[in-house]
Automatic annotation (TrEMBL):
The name this protein goes by in its record: Uncharacterized protein
Record field: compositional bias (Low complexity): 54-64
Organism of derivation: Rhodococcus wratislaviensis NBRC 100605
Region described as Disordered: spans on this chain: 48-71
Length: 71
């Protein structure tokens, strides 16, 4: 589980077909479609600033070619 000031997460609500998204500002929203939840999370205007897309929604950036390769 990610920890931090700007973490947004989406969790499945057991026993339903619904997902609940929680913004780092504490706002919550329930929807069926993950895409709809992310859109809400990224656009809802209540008391927070727009942030970069959450880490969980995007692949990790490739390591720079100059970085040492882990063995
Ligand atoms: Zn928020």
């Amino acid at each position: 589980m990610l920890r931090g000031a700007n973490v947004m997460r989406i969790v499945w609500l057991p026993g339903s077909d619904l997902l609940e998204g929680e913004c780092h500002c504490g706002a919550r929203h329930v929807a069926e479609e993950p895409a709809a939840l992310w859109e809400w999370l990224l656009t809802h205007p209540e008391g927070h600033h727009p942030v970069d897309p959450p880490v969980t929604a995007t692949p990790l950036p490739a390591a720079p070619e100059s970085a040492p390769v882990p063995v």
